[in-house]
Specification:
Layout (H helix, E strand, L loop, with lengths): L6 H12 L6 H7 L8 H11 L2 E9 L2 E8 L3 H12 L8 H12 L1 H22 L1
Antiparallel strand pairs: 1-2
Helix pairs in contact: 5-6
Length: 130
Amino acid sequence: MRKNLTEREFEIMEVLWKSDKPLNAAELLKMTSSISENSIHRIISHLLSKGYIKIAGTIQVSRSLSRVYTPAISAEEYTVEQMKKIFKPQEEHSPFARLFMYLASRNKTQADIISDEILKIIEKLKKKEQ
């Protein structure tokens, strides 16, 4: 299991997850709010070593080559990893079931919405299997 992300690492990951193309350090810097020019390369290095991003190639920027980065893990995979860390397996229910039960106990309307979304996901998965 990967190490947890810092707040600034997570900010970079969010930008990469939303991007439809690999991005270089300068592009990442422009798209983030709390990261300085002095920190961007160090944060990218940490994300590479933790296995969250990978080098997708190089591009020509002015007269030099620049590496471009892409996520090595999807936002969904990251969410599942975090949930597994928070919710330890128990005999009766999976971490996901316990999360749903918690949300349902807090807000009935929200529970109905989540339930509908889960059913839609299940239907999509069943169609893919066929």
